[in-house]
Specification:
mainly alpha; 13 helices
């Protein structure tokens, strides 16, 4: 792409932001490693990737940018109903599979204790997980909003952001969007200061923190797109991936409430701007595509294995020296599973649903 025309081209054409896709995969991998390591180090200050949970805020910021890019110019014509159908087709098949895997993991975990729940309660938890209805009942799972697939909490808030976009955000002008973003930034500061970090949103005790997290980052991503804040650069995927990963491995301290807020408020939006405006070498293109393609399947299917690892770690108490031989192969295995899920489940199911959707539409160009 011609360097001088980069800013105009990335906004005016429907190209694919492959570096942003690649960075999404880096963030998903960080979440997996963080979930393994938080069992090992319950004190985040001792966890080398103790800020890995901030990857979710990066996801939200990417989502705001991509939703604006993909739908701002056509949602009025397609209508909110079609928008919701497209988002459900894109997101919900893996919500269902993640719930099924979580249920299977719950029953088949060889390191778990006896099942202390009746059929009715388990059925209710499963149905709520399928339909993204928060139901934080399981004390031994820290009252996760979705006991069978904890990461679904962020999908719940993603859906809330999508609904708000389709009803309100696509209509408002840039000034109103700036005002809302500033207001949401204040919410991030309040949540971070009160809790001492930005880890919340996944449990009954910190449910509303998730709303603050998605509100700011989604709005910031949308604002980046609408303001054309795309920074031309030649950093490339590898450099930007390192810069993103640094946010997850920065040292913990008593100032986490401030450093995490600054990362979310400024650093992640900057990385999105840089990622949208950076050049991509042919060698890195395949890596970015693979990374982006498996990012969502990896995020939504890994947690059943994390519970198995957690119960193994709690009951068997392996030494620290043994853990690399478990966590590293385990992470690789989960990446392979995510690839299989993408190829044999996610893509075919979404393709089928899109075909069904088109067959029910009148013959017209959307």
């Amino acid at each position: 792409m011609n360097k001088e025309n980069l800013n105009q081209d990335v906004v005016s054409t429907k190209q694919h932001f492959e570096i942003l896709d690649g960075l999404r995969g880096v963030a998903a991998l960080a979440v997996v490693v963080f979930h393994f390591m938080e069992w090992v180090f319950t004190d985040p200050g001792k966890n080398f990737i103790g800020h890995g949970f901030l990857a979710v805020d990066f996801f939200f910021c990417l989502s705001g940018f991509v939703i604006g890019y993909a739908y701002d110019n056509r949602i009025r014509k397609m209508g909110a109903g079609e928008f919701f159908k497209l988002r459900l087709i894109r997101l919900h098949p893996l919500v269902v599979l993640g719930s099924v895997l979580g249920l299977l993991g719950f029953f088949l975990d060889p390191f778990a204790g006896p099942i202390a729940y009746g059929t009715g309660k388990l059925a209710l938890l499963f149905v709520c997980s399928l339909f993204l209805i928060p139901l934080p009942l399981m004390e031994e799972r820290a009252f996760n909003l979705f006991a069978f697939n904890a990461p679904s909490w962020s999908l719940f808030w993603e859906y809330v952001a999508n609904v708000f976009y389709a009803i309100v955000l696509y209509k408002i002008g840039r000034r109103s969007l700036v005002a809302l973003t500033i207001l949401a930034a204040a919410g991030i500061c309040v949540v971070s200061y009160r809790a001492g970090n930005l880890l919340g949103g996944w449990s009954k005790d910190n449910f509303l923190d998730g709303g603050a997290r998605v509100a700011y980052s989604f709005l910031a991503g949308l604002l980046i797109y609408r303001s054309n804040w795309i920074i031309k650069n030649r950093l490339g995927f590898a450099s930007l991936a390192i810069l993103l990963f640094l946010a997850f491995v920065m040292p913990g301290s008593t100032w986490n409430w401030l450093t995490e807020a600054l990362v979310v408020l400024f650093y992640f939006p900057l990385l999105v701007s840089l990622g949208a405006g950076s050049s991509l070498s042919p060698q890195a293109k395949k890596v970015c595509r693979f990374s982006g393609n498996i990012s969502y399947p990896l995020y939504m299917t890994h947690y059943a294995a994390i519970w198995v690892f957690g119960n193994y770690f709690t009951n068997r108490k392996p030494s620290i020296d043994e853990l690399p031989y478990i966590i590293i192969p385990g992470t690789v295995f989960l990446v392979v599973v995510a690839y299989w899920v993408m190829v044999f489940y996610d893509i075919p199911v979404r393709r089928y649903l899109m075909k069904k959707r088109r067959s029910k539409q009148p013959s017209q160009t959307l």
